[in-house]
Structure formats: C-alpha cells, structure tokens
Amino acid sequence: MKKIVFTLIEEDGKPLEIQTEASGFTGNACLKATEPFLKALGGDFETKTTAEYHKRPEQKQKAR
Amino acid sequence: MSHVSKGGLFITDLDALEKVCNDLGLELQRGKTEWCWWGSDAGDSDLAQGYDRSQFGVGHHAIKIKGTNPRMGPVGPWEIGLVTRADGKPGFEALWDGYGMHGQALERVAGKNLSILKREYSTELLRRMAVRQGFKPRVTVNAKGQRQVVCEGH
Q1: ipTM score of the complex?
Q2: What angle do CA B36, B41, B44 make, to 5 degrees?
Q3: Which pLDDT tens digit goes with each residue over B32-46?
Q4: B135 has a chain A CB within 8 A of its CB
Q5: Residue of B93, B122, B124 to mutate, testing the A interface (most A Cβ within 10 Å of its Cβ)
Q6: Chain A contact present for B121, CB below 8 A
Q7: Interface contact flag, B130 A8, Cβ < 8 Å
C-alpha cells in the first residue's frame, strides 16, 4: 500500500508549513509521487530522506 | 494609509479555492480585475515586498466577503486580490489590505494573515490532487491536533 501523509503545521506568526511523508514506494518513486502535490501548493519546498530529516535537530544543537 | 500584505497564499486551482471560499463565507469573483483596498500608497507601512505598488488594486480575480459590496478607498469594504506572482512562478498570490476595520473584517473570516483560508485551501487542493493521482484521500487530525491529509493507493 502506497501512502502519502501531508501534515499542516500551523504555529503563531509563522507561515503554514506542510510536512510530507511517503511510504510504500520504491527508490525515487516517492519523489515522483509527491512532487506534483508540492508544485501545486506553489510555495518553496525541500526534499529530505527520513534519515536526513531526523538529523536536523541534532545539527541545530551543534550550531548553538 | 496603506497596509497591503502578502501571506504566502499561492493559488493554482481556482475550483478548489472557490469551494473553500463558499464554505467560509467568502465569494471568489473570477475575472474581477480590480480589488478594493485603501486605494493610495502613503509609503508608511510594510507593503507586500516584490510587488509594484502602483499595481495594488489590479489583479486577475478578487475575493469578497459574501453579501458585501466592496468599494475602493477608505469607505470600504475591501477585498483580497489574486495577482500574478512576483517571483514569476505559475499561479496567483493573494494580496490584501489588513488596515483598520475593513482589513480586520477580511481577517475575521479568512484568518490572521489569511491563515484559515490557507489551511482550508491547502487541504482541499491536496484532497483534489490525491484523487487525480489515483489515491483515496481522507482528512484527519493527528495527536498534536494538526490537520492531516492521508492519501492511500496501490
């Protein structure tokens, strides 16, 4: 089963952020599947693997 | 006075926007190329960066509060304008004048910085896109209270 979950993250004073998670795809197929959605939303987006995404908090801490 | 803002609401699907506007008590006026605001730029506030100030009030479509009769100038009421994106990307960006009672009236319905309109439009757009891509979408709320659009398919 292929699954894409879009989570709308609203925080006061910040622009709406939409986090996208895809599962059940092989290789780059998840990027091909999610890209039309992200383009339609019209904003800027960045793509990360799950491993890259979970590195973020750690990197932020090191930067401090 | 002039307080025209942009809030990162990018429109690529007018049908989705129209549906959401109807649900919220707004009305999308397709092809209305003038959108009402204070009407003059006094250069005294933070305006929508990247846009030509002389073009405020001019766009491709406009959104009004249902049942109102918008008028240009301080008397109001005002509208949200859909204009060509300043960054040249496809679709439109929403601009509006958030000043005073007429600006607040728009934000009462569409949300501060159009947050309600953005959330509902994004949800509807994702839902429609999912159907087009062969997924079955459902809208839920996660444990953190955040809206989710879950798309499943084979």
Answers
A1: 0.86
A2: 125
A3: 999 999 998 766 556
A4: yes
A5: B122
A6: no
A7: no
